[in-house]
Design goal:
481 residues, alpha+beta, five-stranded antiparallel β-sheet, 10 helices, 52% helix
Length: 481
């Protein structure tokens, strides 16, 4: 019937609430009955206090004298309309009543014995008359100077009206308790539903997301923690959907990137194998081997990039740091890519500084990888006759702790909505250009491991500027942060 949070609420909170309400209702009922009964007893006690003055220092020691005095008291009793007064002799027999009606001589007078045995000389008793009317009686014994009991006076009052009032108030209290319990259950059920329903939806949505359905959306009904969680799950699903799409695109791109060199290698290998039976001219042989070597190198680069990405994802990328001349490393990379720029009819501009730069502390191969990746991207996205300009500077006045390298191209640029994402894994802003889409992610991670930065500024149709910031090696032999 109940399960989950509802079950816990019912068997913990609701049981406690019901118990508290029952205790409160019970306490109020007993308190009300006690107050009304106390009022009756106080009324009877107040009437009985008159006996103290009437029979004070009473000297008679026989029943006849007591009966005569008691009869006078009964005759002049002022509260006959409120209660009945009975005179009881020393043997416990009723000898006179204020109503003037006959009385049952066998009527139970055990309260008389109770009053005699009481140190205060009185007793209360609740009983029912022969007609079924509920009454409360108060009996006080009368003693003479010798402390001998010579009789007693009993006051009897009907409690039917009091009982009716107690019953009515009890009914009101019970009804109020049930109404309060109903309101608590109603509000509690609404509150629990406001939690359970979204949580159940969250669970179902999380299950769908876990099974690859990233289109799941959860409606935000409340502006509270549950609502924030619904929004967070929905946003997470959108991000996962985008990431999944980028991953699929990445796999597709990598498959294409791998297939292209593999197809070229396989094609030329088959050509050379088939031509092996006859003499193959040197020119064709050199061309085929050149393609195989070039595409093998390209294939190796793709695999290395994937391995680097895997190392970054698992935190296993380790730098082999040493003291470096960053000018020499950058010059070597530019020299390596200059022929490519010429072959693609693009202008690669770099003026090597004449001043001596301070050394940096880093991994030679990883920093070269960053330079190659950034300059390769610049050349890749720059059209023919376009310009890729590289500048390295170190200014003690403006930034004495870092060497700044900027690579600026006149390519197609990156749209503003894509710019914040270009360093994310799998993301690729321009799908028309070859590439895996993880190069910048790897380069950015390498720069972070060197305590440096890789910043990108771009405008569509204007070009892109990549700024690499590398901390120099300080006098103590460690890298500035």
């Amino acid at each position: 019937m109940f399960k989950g949070i509802t079950r816990r609420w019912v068997f913990s909170t609701m049981f406690l609430i019901v118990l508290i309400i029952v205790l409160i209702v019970t306490g109020l009922i007993y308190g009300t009955a006690y107050l009304f009964n106390s009022e009756v007893e106080e009324t009877l006690t107040a009437a009985g206090e008159e006996l103290t003055s009437v029979f004070e220092n009473y000297e008679a020691d026989n029943s006849s004298a007591f009966s005569a005095g008691a009869a006078s008291y009964v005759e002049n009793f002022r509260h006959k309309e409120q209660m009945e007064v009975m005179v009881v002799n020393s043997t416990g027999r009723i000898v006179l009543t204020s109503t003037g009606f006959s009385y049952d001589e066998n009527e139970d007078t055990k309260d008389f014995e109770m009053a005699k045995n009481s140190k205060d000389g009185y007793a209360f008793q609740s009983s029912t008359t022969a007609s079924g009317e509920p009454v409360t009686s108060y009996i006080r014994v009368i003693t003479n100077r010798d402390k001998n009991v010579i009789g007693a006076v009993r006051y009897v009052v009907s409690t039917a009206e009091v009982n009716n009032r107690v019953t009515l108030i009890t009914a009101i209290i019970i009804f109020s308790g049930l109404l309060l319990l109903f309101i608590i259950i109603l509000s509690g059920s609404y509150f629990i539903r406001s939690i359970v329903a979204p949580v159940r939806e969250l669970g179902e949505a999380a299950n769908k997301i876990a099974h690859g359905d990233f289109s799941t959306k959860i409606e935000k009904r409340y502006n509270d923690e549950i609502g924030d969680l619904c929004s967070a799950i929905t946003d997470m699903a959108k991000d996962l959907e985008a990431t999944e799409q980028m991953k699929n695109d990445f796999i597709s791109r990598v498959s294409h990137e791998l297939r292209t060199p593999l197809t070229a290698i396989k094609g030329w290998a088959e050509t050379m194998q088939l031509s092996g039976r006859k003499k193959l001219d040197r020119r064709t042989f050199d061309k085929g081997m050149g393609v195989i070597i070039k595409e093998s190198g390209r294939l190796t680069g793709i695999v290395e990039e994937l391995l680097d990405f895997s190392r970054i994802q698992t935190g296993r990328m380790v730098l082999i740091n040493e003291k470096l001349d960053i000018l020499a490393e950058l010059d070597e990379v530019i020299y390596m890519l200059k022929d490519r720029a010429v072959n693609e009819n693009k202008h690669l501009i770099y003026d090597e500084p004449v001043e001596v730069f301070p050394p940096v502390y880093g991994d030679r191969n990883r920093l070269k990888q960053v330079f190659i990746n950034v300059i390769d991207n610049a050349l890749k996205y720059t059209p023919e006759d376009g310009v890729v300009a590289i500048e390295i500077k170190y200014d003690k006045k403006t930034d004495a702790d870092n060497i700044i390298i900027t690579i600026t191209d006149t390519g197609c640029g990156i749209p503003a909505e894509d710019l914040p994402k270009v360093k994310e894994k799998f993301y690729k802003a321009n799908q028309k250009v070859n590439g895996s889409g993880i190069g910048l992610a790897v380069a950015d991670e390498i720069m972070q491991l060197h305590k440096g930065k890789l910043d990108i500024e771009s405008g569509v149709g204007v070009g892109t500027t990549v700024t690499i910031t590398l901390p120099i090696l300080n006098d103590k032999g460690s890298q500035n942060k």
